[in-house]
Specification:
By secondary structure, the protein is of the alpha/beta class. It has 2 domains: 212 residues, 3-Layer(aba) Sandwich (Rossmann fold); 228 residues, Rossmann fold (3-Layer(aba) Sandwich), CATH 3.40.50. The chain is 50% helix and 10% strand. The chain is built from 22 helices and 10 strands. The strands form 2 sheets. The chain has a 5-stranded parallel beta sheet, sandwiched between helices. It has a 5-stranded parallel beta sheet with strand order 7-6-8-9-10, with helices on both faces. Helix 6 packs parallel to helix 8.
């Protein structure tokens, strides 16, 4: 009998230990899950954010679940004309958000604006991507605050991850990301003081690698652009009537990628032109789009307001295309204004190594020649640099002489709304915009360089110009991305 009891104890004691270990493991696991979902970090950055609320003068609050350091809270407050306090730490969960908002409203009963970078997928993943599990915490920590403060506007910015990242995740994970966005919008729909902004379907934003750093986080310039987009107008508001279309557009970019872009990493491309190339100095400029999408080494040597021809009425320091070309060939930066792309591009070109690279020049002038009424052509003096055609011939001729193996692409003037869509005659010759387009095509044929008829081939017109142009002449982000892609396709043909 004793032997039997000993055998039973030998069996039960290890089994009991295993059972006890399993119980402890399960309890610890659920405590860990509970901490992830409802735990509030007590790090110095968060404590600093809470302390900063005391005595601060603010009527707006800025917080984010993703990379708050790339957003400039001071600039945000300036643009919105609202004294704004920005939280510096990255919010981890809804409980963290809820407690911070509670502290904000305790110190300031009346807030005019709460602006929040919200990551619905980060929230959803904490709950195993089960909407039924996290819906209650949205109500507990977020929508409860929205209901309690009907005079406060709550604006939410959804993430806009790089297209390369979205294409790298599994189909299941991508579907979970989209579903989390959809569920978040549906949760917020009943509240009139909640507004959701979404730019993640914009190809110019997510498909341009130059908009993101090596870690996949957008750059500060792009973060500033995104913020400006959200309060310029209501175009990027995500609503019940446009949600599926915009999420579907993002999915189309992810699931149906366009034809692969060429590898031009052995190319060195220099851009001469006016504000079509020089409108912005960031990753969304046309030269930088070309470089980011192809790996080409690019140099933006354009300068806003510049005509190709020599303008006798030009302000001091304005260079014509032949003068820019001469400066470039000589590497001469003497007396140049430093705060422009021509100076920066030339300096960068002079300091870089181009050995083994195939050289390409992309040239675009014409709108300012037309706007200023400068002569399109002088048949009696075809080399006259005071004319559009003469200036193009002179500049291209110098480049061909000094870089005989280089590829040269001339892009004619593009569409504009100005002067009745370019139909009003300008200058003593009474030329319209199409005259300058035809003159550029003729100059390209005479000099034997490639020609892009941007006016005709880009398809920008009065009906669709708001989609592509910022002000009726200069391309916006969509337009710059589109034109950059068109230039790439021409370079690919030459390759």
């Amino acid at each position: 009998m004793k032997d039997k009891r000993r055998k039973i104890r030998k069996i039960l004691f290890p089994a009991g230990g295993i059972l006890l270990f399993f119980i402890v493991f399960v309890v610890c696991f659920f405590l860990w899950i509970e901490h992830r979902i409802h735990g509030i970090p007590h790090d110095s950055e968060r404590e600093k954010d809470i302390s900063a609320l005391a005595g601060a003068d603010y009527s707006g609050v800025f917080l984010s679940m993703f990379a708050p350091d790339i957003f400039d809270g001071d600039a945000f407050g300036y643009y919105r004309a609202i004294p704004t306090i920005q939280a510096g730490h990255t919010f981890q969960n809804l409980a963290d958000i809820g407690q911070y908002l509670e502290q904000c409203f305790l110190r300031k009963e009346e807030l005019s604006l709460v602006y929040m970078g919200i990551d619905p997928y980060a929230v959803s993943s904490l709950y195993g991507n089960h909407a039924s599990l996290y819906a209650g915490d949205y109500a507990r920590y977020l929508t409860g605050q929205i209901q309690a403060h009907p005079d406060t506007v709550f604006e939410f910015l959804l993430p806009f991850p790089a297209l390369s990242y979205l294409r790298s995740v599994s189909d299941q994970k991508y579907d979970e990301i989209v579903e989390s966005y959809r569920n978040f919008v549906n949760i917020m729909l009943p509240y009139d003081n909640a507004r959701i902004y979404f730019l993640g379907y914009e190809e110019w934003l997510i498909a341009n690698p130059g908009n993101y750093d090596d870690g996949g986080q957008c750059t500060e310039d792009i973060a500033r652009t995104v913020l400006l987009k959200t309060f310029q107008n209501d175009h990027y508001l995500l609503r019940a009537d446009n949600m599926e279309e915009r999420l579907g557009h993002m999915t189309k970019l992810v699931r149906d990628p366009s034809a692969a872009l060429p590898d031009l990493s052995q190319w060195c491309a220099v851009f001469f032109g006016d504000s079509i190339f020089d409108y912005v100095y960031n990753s969304t400029s046309i030269p930088n789009v070309v470089g980011s999408l192809t790996g080409a080494q690019v140099y933006n040597c354009a300068k806003g307001g510049t005509p190709a021809a020599t303008d006798p009425a030009a302000p001091d320091g304005q260079l014509s295309f032949p003068e820019m070309t001469e400066r470039f060939i000589k590497g001469d930066t003497t007396g140049l204004e430093e705060d422009n792309d021509f100076f920066r591009g030339l300096q960068k070109y002079l300091s870089d190594d181009h050995s083994g690279k195939r050289c390409c020049f992309v040239i675009n002038f014409g709108l300012n020649d037309y706007f200023s009424g400068l002569p399109a052509e002088n048949e009696a003096d075809p080399e006259n640099r005071g004319t559009y055609a003469g200036a193009l011939r002179a500049g291209i001729g110098m480049l061909q002489a000094h870089y005989p193996d280089a590829v040269i692409i001339l892009m004619g003037p593009t569409y504009t709304l100005e002067f009745s869509e370019g139909t009003q005659p300008r200058g003593e010759q009474g030329r319209v915009l199409l005259d300058y387009v035809e003159t550029a095509e003729k100059a390209a044929e005479e000099t034997g360089v490639c020609f892009i008829n941007g006016y005709k081939e880009f398809g920008i017109n009065k009906e669709n110009q708001e989609q592509y142009l910022a002000d009726g002449s200069h391309p916006n982000e969509t337009g710059r991305f589109y034109i950059g892609n068109q230039i790439i396709r021409y370079m690919e043909k030459i390759k």
